[in-house]
Amino acid sequence: MSIIILFLAAILSAVGWWFWRQGIGSKPWLHVGVLAGSPGANAPVVPAAKTGLGVFLVVAGCLFALVVSAYSMRMQMGDWWPMPVPGILWVNTGILVMSSVALGWARVSCRNGAVERMRVGLISAFLFALVFLAGQVAAWRELAAAGYTLSSNPANSFFYLITGAHGLHVLGGLFALGRTTEAGLSTPAARGTRDLLLRIDLCDIYWHFLLLVWLILLALLAGWAGEFMVICRQLLT
Amino acid sequence: MSDVTLGPTGAVPPAEVEDVELYHPHSWVTKYVFSQDAKVIAIQYSMTALSIGLVALVLSWLIRLQLGFPGILSFMDASAYYQFVTMHGMIMVVYLLTALFLGGFGNYLIPLMVGARDMVFPYANMLSYWIYLLAVLVLVSSFFAPGGPTGAGWTLYPPQAILSGTPGQESGIVLMLISLILFIIGFTMGGLNYVVTVLQGRARGMTLMRMPLTVWGIVTATVMALLAFPALLVGAVMMLFDKLLGTSFFMPSLLDMGQQLEYGGGSPILFQHLFWFFGHPEVYIVALPAFGIVSDLISTHARRNIFGYRMMVWAIVGIGALSFVVWAHHMYVSGMNPQFGFFFATTTLIIAVPTAIKVYNWVLTLWRGDIHLNVPMLFALGFIVTFVNGGLTGLFLGNVVVDVPLSDTLFVVAHFHMVMGVAPILVIFGAIYHWYPKITGRMFNSTLGKFHFWVTFLGAYAIFFPMHYLGLLGLPRRYFELTDVGFMPASAQSLNAFMTIAALLVGATQLVFVANMIWSLFRGPAAGGNPWRATTLEWQTPETPPPHGNWGRDLPVVYRWAYDYSVPGADQDFIAQNDPAPHVSAHGH
After folding, report:
1. pTM of the prediction?
2. What share of chain A in percent tops pLDDT 90?
3. Which residues fall within 8 angstroms of residue A134, CB to CB, at 6 or more apart?
4. In chain A, which among 43-102 make CB contacts under 8 A with chain B?
5. Taken in order B359, B360, B363, B364, is the CA torsion positive or negative?
6. Could you tell me if A171 lies within 8 Å of chain B, comparing CB atoms?
7. Domain residue limits, chain A
8. Which of B20, B207, B223, B241 is most worth mutating to test chain A (most A CB atoms within 10 A of its CB)?
9. What is residue B500's predicted lDDT score, i.e. its pLDDT?
10. Is the pLDDT higher at A193 or at B111?
């Protein structure tokens, strides 16, 4: 459970720092009038959707941190047989990186008003992500065929749970990206609107989050994270 | 950020946040059923939560009847008893208290108190309610499923929760887990709304430190719930896998009726960690909104500014953060390393510090206040006493050496019913009475309200005070019946019978509350916009009850904090938050 505690400590210190900046130390009974520090005064205005996405990412991050915590707790018990990592996962990782890059490109293009390039970026990001999901399913089939089924060992169960949870988040993202792509295709070429830019921006942030989570999960499944933890433990003791 | 005091005549900064484009309902259905107005959603949430709460109340009657008069109910066997205990606990904690405080009061009060027109994502807010309703329906459906609802206890500990011999093992447990997963998804949609609305939807001039403590309590609890519920989600999904797909996340190798089961290699303790990582913050998810609301009730009805507002805010945030590092105090008897026990006992006792600060500040707010014993105030005072009682037994149970012998006795049941059962429910009643005139535009019947308070308050003590004693005698919880056990004197059974009669009376008295609410809705005297002469924004709306959009043409502008009561030299004994009133200095107190 130390991983989730670290995650929460990071989140809570960020929240605490922000609270402090917002004047949580002030004495409100002494001041009458319209104060600085209220929304719209002095503070850059972030769209509500972006703040909402940020909060959601913290929640989703918490979910993954908990799964990783459970995994590492189970890993420490004696009878742990880790699964082999099928080679196709590395290909999938490359594809997910491509998807993220394409989406980043679409965002920059949208900002610069290059609508055609933005469309290419959106469509390729969408397709890359689809291929990633198909690749994940292929990895599952490969493992199942080799006898590593869901219920044969706790390590296997965790493997399917972790990849499945990540896959579901990609699927949910694809829904949003699909609608954004649709909006991008129907926009007249002259106008990359502010609204569209925001939507692409949100997808882009979410995609980078998914990529980061995937890299951490992959490191965990491949066993590097275990070595990393051993080093950390040695440093602490 | 430095505080810039512009003074009362200082220029109002221009609105940089655009006024929100509201969704305009076109039909009766979109206005009152699939509504995107936070106030309608709040009422839907509250009605659903109170209805399912009444089911849990009836279940508690059945439990008490079995304990007080064993064998009086012909349909009550051990299985039914466990099922009723489980469903009573789960409904009360998750589907009533959490839903009512956050979904009900959160939705109604946050936009009004921070001066917003609505939540920032009204559509997600609407979805949140309907998914919650679906979760409740799935839960209720388990009563009619083959084998009945799960009887695993509200903690749903594996391996017993999904093994044969536990009632509801066939389908009840599956429906329970699915219902919880739905609840969490629905709550997350609502929770994002509450947090982002407080971050970005506040009116001009409404700094964080000018928010009423109610908003602080609800929003901190929401943040905690957003971070804690994923643990329950992970646990529920993993247990569902174990039950349906034959995985062994939580299931060790087992013999069942002489047969070796397919399971092997899982860790039941892992579930306990996940469950209590959610379960302990859950206690404060229920308590913090109650803390916030009670602060506002006391301040308003004692006509006095809240004592130590800053300290109250810091205590709420501090309790919220600390509650994430105490979960294993629910697991002292799980066989964990005693050194962990020491660590968790320490963190648990540290929570007593900010909590005690809050209690002292409530008492100091009352000190020399102009106390009006209105119905909401009675409930708020009842809360303070009850919370202190329940909190003190918490100090006992937080210590490993005291907890181990008291584990799984009625002492624990009495403790948590006082601290997170009776205490928050007293606040819920107080809050409903307090905001009823704003929600309906009419005043409730005060005499009936006072009757409701005294029977509920005294009755709750008649039920739960003797329970501590029974626990100290060693009576275990979750036992269907205790016939002739040597350590239990005959008088203990008489005490059990007394508690049962008290429970029946208290439960029946809640009908007086329901009748009062319904009767007053049609026949109550008109209340006016601000019957309690309160300062906070929700009482300053141009219309009562506030319509969709809350504020008419112009959003309010906030000039002062939420607690300007009895300001020396002011015309009235309160100054509303949106009152620019240049005629008083606020430095007098």
Report:
1. 0.93
2. 54
3. none
4. 45-46, 48-49, 51-52, 55-56, 58-59, 62-63, 66-67, 70, 73-74, 77, 79
5. negative
6. no
7. 84-236
8. B207
9. 96
10. B111
Shortest distance between the Cα of B454 and any Cα of chain A, in A, equals 36
Task: Say how far apart CA B212 and CA B537 lie, in whole Å.
Answer: 9
- The DSSP symbol for B178 reads H
Question: Which tens digits make up the pLDDT trace of B505-541?
Answer: 999 999 999 999 999 999 999 999 999 999 999 999 9
Model pLDDT for residues B263-310, shown as the tens digit of each residue: 888 889 999 999 999 999 999 999 999 999 999 999 999 999 999 999
Residues in chain B, total: 589
Which residue in the block uniquely carries the two structure tokens 């009512």?
Answer: B100
Cis peptide bond N-terminal to B466, omega within 30: no
CATH of B34-250, one of 3.10.290.10, 1.20.210.10, 3.40.50.300, 3.30.360.10: 1.20.210.10
Residue B59, pLDDT above cutoff 50: yes
> At a CB cut-off of 8 Å and minimum separation 6, what does B110 contact?
B38, B116, B119, B194, B197, B198, B215, B218, B219
Nearest to B5 among A31, A41, A55 (CB): A31
Per-residue pLDDT of B457-486, as tens digits, reads 999 999 999 999 999 999 999 998 887 777
Distance CA A69, CA A74 (A): 9
Distance separating the N- and C-terminal Cα atoms of chain B: 24
> Mutation test of the interface with chain B: which of A13, A31, A163, choosing the one with the most B Cβ atoms within 10 A?
A31
Give the least confident one: B123-137, B158-172, B427-441. Answer: B158-172
- Closest CA relative to residue B563, chosen from B343, B200, B296: B296
Instruction: Determine, for residues B558 and A42 on separate chains, whether the beta-carbon distance falls below 8 Å.
Output: no
Q: Note whether A23 contacts B: Cβ–Cβ < 8 A.
A: yes
The answer to whether the CB atoms of A74 and B270 lie below 8 A apart is: yes
Q: What is the mean pLDDT of residues A47-75?
A: 92
CATH 3.30.1700.10 fits A84-236, yes or no: no
